Amino acid sequence: MAMIESIEDAAELFPSFQNLSFLITLFSFLEKYGLLCIEVEFYVAIFGLFLTLCHIFVLTRKPMMTSSIISIMIGMGICDALSMIFAISVKDLSYNFYRDECTPPFTFAQFVIFLLLAHSRDNIMRCSIWLGLVMALFRFLALRFVSQPGILKITNTRFGFVATFITFFASCVLTFFNVFRYRLVEDGIWTAGEKCHIESNNVYIIYRQQLSDVYNANSQLLLRAVTFINAVSTKILPSLLLPIFTILLIIEIRRARKKITNASAQVQKQTDKTTYLVIFMTTTFFIASLPAGVFSLFQVIYSDKGFIYLFSFVDHFSNVILTVNASIHCIICFVMSTDYREHTKMILGIQPKKINTNSIF
């Protein structure tokens, strides 16, 4: 990992900028607390994994399978659980990028394992954010075109699973292009510092990632295209669409309330709860993805190498927020959904089972 210790280092990483002293301060701050975020996320992921598995268990009960919103939430829960497993797995490997002079570098096998875990996690987290968008879109369409018979299709549980699979497949396609962007090459032999007092006959080869020939051809045209699509679809577009969907859902709630009759008041109340649940989850996704979205925009606009490192640091912050957000999905549902709360109590044996249920989803 690159270090900035002087104006000359900053000028090398950020040749397009003049205010280098600010960049040195920003880089040092993000590097310091980015490392702390890796440690924090590890413990949050352990606790969050337990909550998320419980969340998935509740959602997959047959009485809960009532709409596409539930199907999508199950998909999000699976993505969140896998993301937390990957976060736990890469914690120690991530520290190797910030190793001191006494810590040997990755072996080739360790580097490959780390990259596979990192790409898998990026894929899963991207899919989870996209599913949040799909969930908000489905809820908006269900409210806006409620009187049209054809719109009932998107509220079907099976349709939600199909949408989840398509979203996952689209994310995998983008990940495929990211995986082959770089290749591992040898970058010399590692030697321990003079203060380390390491006595070993092992030879450690330093490996680094190098841009593949395909991405380097034609003035890096394919690299620019993939970087742009990845940044826009994964970070920037969700940061723009999530607040838009939130506003649209609020507008639809207000519009629907003007048409309420006494007979439909109870149904509308239940519908509002579902919409508020979607709004709350959409808002938390927006807050979690905004920082990375801003830095992704800079990475697209500027070609300075330093933004790659800044983006990796900001990604540590965003990953913590996303992991916390994923961990509290079950709490959000428990607080805001009567049906979810009742089924949770029945599973725990706190409340007797009921034959009939009216899901708010």
From TrEMBL:
Protein name in the entry: G-protein coupled receptors family 1 profile domain-containing protein
Compartment(s): Membrane
Domain of life of the source: Eukaryota
GO cellular component: membrane
Keywords: Membrane, Transmembrane, Transmembrane helix
Regions that span the bilayer: 12-30, 42-60, 72-90, 129-147, 159-180, 236-253, 274-301, 307-336
Pfam families found in the cross-reference section: 7TM_GPCR_Srw
Domain G-protein coupled receptors family 1 profile: 51-333
A molecular function (GO) term: G protein-coupled peptide receptor activity
Main location: membrane
